[in-house]
């Protein structure tokens, strides 16, 4: 039977948020790339919440942008409301979140894909991966039998693999939003020795705006001055008229209905096999687990400009249709609500991400990469950043360049990927600020300064952009130095200024930096005492203020990072049999053999590997210096 | 290779003519310059030649600590191949501790057990075969090391630390949740609440640090119980062990009001004999059978010496004691070997499987065998190191001091009106510092664990 055979550099399977970033990265790096989707109309679909960013997720989007990814630019073009969260707290936890016009977001991304050179879009389900005898990926095969040869492939299948959706007793064998599920690929992956998990997540109902009484809800506005996601977007271009969200609450009546119908929830009756996330519970989970709370917040969010549909944030559920309607109607302002799309839970196949290197390449299938919910994460932003890294590293592999691996001290992306590939993970993984140990350094405001060099090195960030970031960095440095050297005397003008700002008068002269560290004073307000000051760009001033104000904390964190880096720098051999090292516990040997950590640091984070085991490995490494100096120095270089 | 600078007491922690504090690492010379003054205060040891010895004084600021001789050895011609300084001081336990604390104050950190040896190894001083034997020892001793260091913590201190860590992690978790979910959880009024909690915690930590300062020196040895029926010869044995040639150290109050401990130096090994008062007392009052009392001592002891009167038959009191010592490191002494024997080693072996030594306390026969046996057990790691206890304590104190510092930073942050996310950085540091005390650290700073059962300063 004749079948189509085509040749590409890279095949990307899936066109959600991960797939789009992966495909764009590869194509932009000059590789002949094809992206497969079960439906071209669902490219960059947002099947759940209608927003991008939020606490720590906003950081991820900034980092994606700093590396040359697309998500930040795309949301800047299609958002309808924007808000900087945690503004009353420290700069490290400021986090941007924007409500998206879902259809516009998806269309805009589709347009970008379609207008990118070297990128082919194909609507077909991929059924198999093809490898040679040495476990190198050589191509993928579609359900129709067409073969697409490639040098590297990136799997970003999201929630589509053997997906099924559950609304009470009603079960639908589809992917999200009624889209076709991908039923074949799991078997092929298993045949290649890939270990699969089954996870679960859920989404609330979409309701008709005309059936809501907003007079019973509180209006939630966007920020007055909008900050864009992308470092390349001019802030003046995004000051739009914003659309409001609405806040209301559940009550005891709501909870009563839920409690009375728990036996009809597939989660509680045991129909659902997959593991769901603890941090994003369904309303029935909240009612059961937090029984002492007599109300829960509900955010009503618009799905877009050209639709009446509203998203009922905080009320995801897998209860039957009739129970859903009854419980939604107990919420103030929703007494007469009409449900457009029912809430549902979705189950899907994903992998145990411990099978991946930090480059997101499979350890046992060379040239096969993966990203997104397929790797056991949740969320658009988590997916997009993995897609970007997987795409970049597929390209690096083909171009025979060093892979891009970010560590925990460099980026939230580094934390996320390290957690996924190193730690045991039994629920969909969500990024949180508390997961980042060095978050004072990993701020959303300095993502460009942190990552531009890497973005430029891999080739996604233009020379112009990179030069600007370098210039900016220099301006910041110079200004901080200047401020540290500006002396402020305890003269009348200064004392009068301090009094005006409710600040304690000076006893002796201090530096301008010292004054800036006072909580009540800042870079702007001190301009009066700083006549030499040259007007600098807003983003430079912002960095100067943060770095001066929190100087002590930042220095302490840098010290912690230095300590961390010491162990990260001790590299371990790959494809190594740990049973060769005498003295490790059997449990550790198994975990180490399976995970093949790249460094002592990573090995120490593996659940179940004890400090004593690490000591034994360290001794082994030292011995290697004598017994196999060639390997040792190849791994760890020569000592300074 | 860049390393930090470590210090430790290199001699056994018992009174002796001389004590040595060793410092090794790149800052060794800097640190000694800060604490050493020559007689005329006219020389810096960082300027002197390698392998020279210098008379002078150790000063902590303006306070003179001790009169000393200091030996200077420069890298790579030292045991660790690093810059090394040895301070020879007067051998009192207080003096040695005080000098060590001074050195730590000026920039060294306490060496982990065996860390000097570890450095010697890492710097290529020891060869491969030695290194391999080191691994064997690590493997056999890791578990033991952890257990012994944990058991040195008094139950109440450990409970305090666990309780405070639980409080800390609770507050951290609350702040973190609020940061991750700002729209659902408000931090309104929280700093004021946290201030009270942290201030109270600081008070408790300060109290713990003070109790560490009180230095229960006598406890820093192998806790030893001497048990047996009245008139078995416990008192005579004790007298021989603490006889003039072996010198009683001191009497201090022990854990309970009426229990005294005496410290015995047995060829450099420190033994703390529990309830010496009880031993002497019950010998006098025959009707007070020591079995109940013995039980308490046995529970507390790392080593039990069980004295049997071999001129008498075993009776139910002996069997009761045997039941209590079954799981303890024990040496059984068949005393009164000078008299005709009614109980032999074979008779005892039928009831309990322990090392048995025949002695005569009266004639001082067999005492050397006992000493040698204790030394064997000590050096094979079956009973605990005295100097390790010391280190653990200094380390505990250091960790407490770190926790205190972190909590003070939290207080500062709250006072200065910093946002809540800054609190959790230092709260987490305090949590980790306390964790190092009870062996539940998040931070796994590891190489140091490695040679942890090595006697330092070898």
UniProtKB/TrEMBL annotation, chain A:
Start and end residues of each tRNA uridine 5-carboxymethylaminomethyl modification enzyme C-terminal subdomain domain: 548-619
GO MF annotations, alphabetized: flavin adenine dinucleotide binding
GO CC field: cytosol
Highest taxon, organism lineage: Bacteria
GO biological process: tRNA methylation; tRNA wobble uridine modification
Cited Gene3D superfamilies: FAD/NAD(P)-binding domain (3.50.50.60), GidA associated domain, C-terminal subdomain (1.10.150.570), tRNA uridine 5-carboxymethylaminomethyl modification enzyme MnmG/GidA (1.10.10.1800)
Record-listed FAD binding positions: 14-19
PROSITE patterns: GIDA_1
Keyword field contains NAD: yes
The UniProt record lists the keyword Cytoplasm: yes
Subcellular location: Cytoplasm
SMART domains: GIDA_assoc_3
Principal location: cytoplasm
Keywords associated with the record: Cytoplasm, FAD, Flavoprotein, NAD, tRNA processing
Residue sites binding NAD(+) per the record: 276-290
Record-linked HAMAP family: MnmG_GidA (MF_00129)
Functional description taken from the UniProt entry: NAD-binding protein involved in the addition of a carboxymethylaminomethyl (cmnm) group at the wobble position (U34) of certain tRNAs, forming tRNA-cmnm(5)s(2)U34.
Self-association state and partner proteins as the record states: Homodimer. Heterotetramer of two MnmE and two MnmG subunits.
Family according to the record: Belongs to the MnmG family.
Protein name (record): tRNA uridine 5-carboxymethylaminomethyl modification enzyme MnmG
Source species: Lachnobacterium bovis
Gene name as annotated: mnmG
From TrEMBL, chain B:
Any Pfam family the entry gives: MMR_HSR1
Residue ranges of every copy of the TrmE-type G domain listed in the record: 221-379
Binding site for GTP: 231-236, 250-256, 275-278
Superkingdom as given in the UniProt entry: Bacteria
Residues annotated to bind (6S)-5-formyl-5,6,7,8-tetrahydrofolate: 22, 86, 125, 458
Cofactor binding remark: Binds 1 potassium ion per subunit.
Keyword tRNA processing belongs to the record: yes
Function: Exhibits a very high intrinsic GTPase hydrolysis rate. Involved in the addition of a carboxymethylaminomethyl (cmnm) group at the wobble position (U34) of certain tRNAs, forming tRNA-cmnm(5)s(2)U34.
Quaternary structure, from the entry: Homodimer. Heterotetramer of two MnmE and two MnmG subunits.
Name of the protein in question: tRNA modification GTPase MnmE
Biological source species: Lachnobacterium bovis
């Amino acid at each position: 039977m004749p079948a189509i055979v085509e040749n590409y550099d890279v095949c990307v399977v899936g066109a959600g948020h991960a797939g789009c970033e992966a495909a764009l990265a590869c194509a932009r790096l000059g590789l002949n790339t094809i992206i497969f989707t079960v439906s071209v109309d669902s490219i960059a679909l947002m099947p759940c919440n209608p927003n991008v960013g939020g606490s720590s997720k906003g950081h991820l989007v900034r980092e994606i942008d700093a590396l040359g990814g697309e998500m930040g630019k795309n949301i800047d073009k299609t958002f309808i409301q924007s808000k900087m969260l945690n503004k009353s707290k420290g700069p490290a936890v400021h986090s941007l979140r924007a409500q998206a016009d879902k259809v516009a977001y998806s269309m805009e991304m589709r347009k970008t894909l379609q207008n990118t050179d070297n990128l082919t879009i194909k609507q077909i389900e991929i059924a198999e991966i093809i490898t040679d005898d040495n476990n190198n990926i050589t191509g993928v095969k579609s359900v129709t039998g067409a073969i697409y040869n490639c040098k590297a492939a990136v799997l970003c299948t999201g929630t589509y693999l053997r997906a099924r959706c559950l609304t009470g007793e009603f079960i639908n064998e589809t992917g999200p939003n009624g889209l076709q599920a991908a039923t074949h690929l799991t078997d092929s992956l298993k045949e290649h020795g890939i270990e699969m998990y089954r996870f679960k997540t859920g989404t609330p109902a979409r309701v008709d705006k005309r059936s809501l009484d907003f007079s019973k809800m509180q209006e939630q506005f966007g920020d007055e001055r909008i900050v864009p996601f992308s470092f390349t977007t001019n802030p003046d271009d995004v000051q739009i008229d914003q659309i409001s969200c609405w806040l209301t609450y559940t009550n005891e009546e709501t909870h009563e209905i839920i409690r009375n119908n728990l036996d009809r929830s597939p989660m509680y009756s045991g129909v659902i096999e997959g593991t769901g996330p603890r941090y994003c519970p369904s309303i029935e989970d909240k009612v059961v687990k937090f029984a002492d709370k007599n109300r829960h917040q509900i955010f009503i969010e618009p799905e877009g400009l050209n639709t009446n549909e509203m998203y009922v944030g905080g009320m995801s559920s897998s209860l039957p249709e009739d129970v859903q309607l009854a419980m939604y109607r107990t919420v103030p302002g929703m007494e007469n609500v009409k449900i457009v799309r029912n809430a549902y839970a979705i189950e899907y196949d994903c992998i145990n991400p411990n099978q991946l290197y930090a480059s997101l390449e499979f350890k046992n299938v060379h040239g096969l990469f993966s990203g997104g919910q397929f790797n056991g994460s949740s969320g658009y932003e988590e997916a997009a950043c993995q897609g970007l890294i997987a795409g970049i590293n597929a390209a690096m592999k083909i171009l025979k360049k060093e892979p891009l691996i970010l560590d925990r001290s460099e980026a939230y992306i580094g934390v996320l990927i390290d957690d996924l590939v190193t730690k045991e993970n039994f629920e969909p993984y969500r990024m949180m600020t508390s997961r980042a140990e060095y978050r004072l350094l990993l701020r959303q405001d300095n993502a460009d300064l942190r990552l531009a060099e890497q973005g430029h090195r891999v080739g996604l960030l233009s020379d112009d952009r990179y030069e600007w970031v370098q210039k900016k960095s220099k301006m910041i440095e110079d200004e901080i130095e200047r401020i540290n050297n500006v002396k402020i005397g305890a003269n009348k003008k200064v004392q009068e200024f301090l009094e005006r700002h409710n600040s304690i008068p000076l006893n002796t002269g201090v530096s301008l930096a010292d004054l800036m560290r006072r909580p009540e004073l800042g870079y702007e307000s001190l301009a009066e005492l700083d006549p030499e000051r040259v007007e600098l760009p807003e983003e430079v001033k912002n960095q100067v203020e943060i770095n001066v104000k929190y100087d002590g904390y930042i220095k302490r964190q840098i010290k912690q990072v230095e300590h961390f880096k010491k162990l990260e720098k001790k590299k371990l051999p790959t494809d190594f049999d740990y049973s060769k090292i005498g003295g490790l516990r059997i449990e550790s040997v198994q975990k180490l053999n399976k995970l093949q950590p790249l460094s002592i640091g990573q090995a120490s984070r593996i659940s179940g590997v004890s400090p004593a085991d690490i000591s034994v490995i360290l001794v082994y490494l030292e011995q290697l210096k004598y017994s196999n100096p060639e390997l040792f120095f190849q791994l760890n270089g020569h000592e300074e | 290779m860049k390393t930090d600078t470590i210090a430790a007491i290199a001699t056994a922690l018992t009174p002796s003519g001389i004590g040595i504090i060793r410092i090794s690492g790149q800052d060794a010379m800097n640190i000694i310059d800060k604490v050493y003054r020559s007689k005329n205060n006219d020389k810096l040891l960082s300027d002197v030649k390698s392998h020279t010895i210098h008379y002078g004084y150790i000063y902590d600021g303006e306070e003179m600590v001790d009169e000393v001789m200091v030996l200077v050895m420069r890298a790579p011609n030292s045991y660790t191949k690093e810059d090394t300084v040895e301070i020879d001081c007067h051998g009192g336990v207080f003096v040695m501790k005080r000098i060590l604390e001074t050195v730590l104050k000026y920039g060294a950190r306490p060496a982990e057990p065996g860390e000097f040896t570890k450095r010697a190894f890492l710097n290529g001083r020891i060869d491969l075969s030695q290194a391999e034997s080191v691994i064997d020892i690590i493997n056999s001793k890791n578990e033991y090391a952890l257990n012994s260091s944990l058991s040195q913590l008094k139950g109440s201190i450990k409970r305090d630390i666990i309780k405070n860590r639980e409080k800390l992690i609770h507050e951290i978790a609350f702040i973190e949740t609020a940061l991750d979910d700002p729209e659902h959880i408000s931090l309104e009024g929280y700093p004021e609440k946290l201030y009270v909690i942290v201030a109270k915690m600081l008070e408790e930590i300060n109290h713990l640090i003070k109790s560490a300062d009180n230095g229960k020196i006598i406890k820093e040895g192998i806790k030893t119980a001497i048990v047996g029926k009245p008139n078995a010869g416990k008192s005579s044995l004790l007298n021989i062990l603490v006889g003039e040639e072996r010198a009683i150290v001191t009497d201090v109050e022990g854990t309970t009001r009426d229990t005294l401990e005496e410290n015995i130096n047995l060829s450099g090994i420190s033994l703390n004999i529990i309830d010496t008062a009880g031993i002497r007392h019950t010998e006098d009052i025959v009707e007070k059978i020591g079995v109940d009392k013995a039980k308490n001592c046995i529970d507390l002891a790392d080593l039990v010496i069980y004295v049997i009167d071999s001129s008498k038959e075993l009776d139910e009191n002996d069997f009761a004691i045997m039941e209590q010592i079954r799981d303890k490191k024990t040496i059984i002494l068949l005393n009164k070997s000078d008299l005709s024997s009614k109980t032999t080693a074979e008779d005892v072996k039928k009831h309990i499987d322990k090392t048995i030594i025949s002695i005569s306390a009266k004639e001082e026969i067999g005492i050397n065998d006992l000493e040698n046996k204790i030394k064997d057990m000590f050096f094979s790691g079956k009973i605990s190191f005295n100097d390790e206890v010391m280190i653990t304590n200094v380390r505990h104190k250091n960790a407490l001091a770190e926790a205190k510092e972190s909590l003070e930073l939290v207080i500062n942050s709250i006072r200065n009106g910093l946002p809540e996310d800054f609190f959790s950085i230092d709260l987490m540091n305090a949590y980790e510092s306390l964790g190092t005390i009870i062996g539940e650290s998040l931070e796994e700073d590891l190489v140091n664990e490695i040679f942890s059962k090595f006697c330092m300063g070898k």
